[in-house]
Design brief:
homodimer, 208 residues, mainly alpha, Arc Repressor Mutant, subunit A, Tetracycline Repressor, domain 2, 9 helices, 67% helix, disordered N terminus, DNA-binding
Amino acid sequence: MARPPSDTPKAADRILATAGELFYREGARAVGVDQIVERAQSTKPSLYRAFGSKDQLIAAYLEGQGQQMWSNFDAAVAAHPDDPKAQILAYVDALGDRALGKGSRGCGLTNAVVEYPDPKHPGHRVAVGHKDRLRSRLRDLTRAMDARKPKKLADSLLLLIEGVFVTSQLFGPDGPAGAARGAAEALIEAHTRKAPKAANDPPGHDRV
Amino acid sequence: MARPPSDTPKAADRILATAGELFYREGARAVGVDQIVERAQSTKPSLYRAFGSKDQLIAAYLEGQGQQMWSNFDAAVAAHPDDPKAQILAYVDALGDRALGKGSRGCGLTNAVVEYPDPKHPGHRVAVGHKDRLRSRLRDLTRAMDARKPKKLADSLLLLIEGVFVTSQLFGPDGPAGAARGAAEALIEAHTRKAPKAANDPPGHDRV
DNA sequence: TCAGCATGTAACTGACCGGTACGGTAAATT
DNA sequence: AATTTACCGTACCGGTCAGTTACATGCTGA
């Protein structure tokens, strides 16, 4: 099994790359398989041999989107070792910058769930899988920063993050994404300040 | 021009109502016109006589979604006269409750923009029109509550609001929407507290 | 009684959808 | 040299998409 040293990308790779661009830009439902294989300079049988169905191609695309999300996340974490607050802020900050850049259409994973509400859809599954892990990773960070209610803080930040994704599509380059970093700072500060502003908290427990 | 006292809804109304349910639940792109007219117990010519095209039917549906949003917003405002902070919190609170209710699929306007990224699409236009007005209304409220940076606070709240909409689809009934009210309180508090936490603000100006 | 309007019936168009049967070609293996 | 194996393309399928046509029906008020 010697390696094929061909420098031209295989058909499957070209198809996945092309499908990724089109799916992200126009939405998966709006893009037909004929359009994909034509732009990829390939053919439909190659697509179906490599991916089995359009839905599975969408799932593969979303898996790539997930990997990209984690590489962004991990970069923010690696940039600020042992400083969970700075890690989250770095992530949110970079997120806002990307969202305001031209050509941004938010998060492919989020968009896919909106386009495919059916939980049985393979793309839907992949997307919510990554989002669940994002929620859990955020909780790890908020716990590490000794937030009073780490789950609640993580969820608040998650609202902000998803808000950035979707408002970039609603409002374009002048959208509210620029407010994300400041808002994240305020939320973290409110959850880690010494004197809690409200006193009706069952201490030591973070049930919600 | 006597009124037609018929108690059976006209065909156009049935079509719009049925299309609304289907569009909201499954997404506009996933629903065909045949499916709509069948469930509405009507026919395609009636649909096209009344709405001209599917895209315009989508726009009509979104106009209704916009009206519903404003009725929710106005209800929150009316419930707390002359108290902009309570008005916003009431809106966010009710929003979170609705988003966590079963069968919720977030905001039809937001979803439509995700499904139809093309700014020329009539549905896209209608949706962003309403969202722009929402942003402006939020700014009115944050100005009225004497926030230090009303635009920034309004945008932060908007991120939260859109986050609620979209996370209800990503995480379901146990999603982060429950954290929205508390987060909104924290953001408002941070923007209206007497001593600003950061000192690098050009005073009196709220450029962003 | 008749005109006018709203609605339904039925058939149709052309384009596009996702998906497939089948045959070819070139390199690796023997 | 013969054969396997991996890869790829041509041509086509039935179904569904949005949208249209021509005509029939029934209810409305004048």
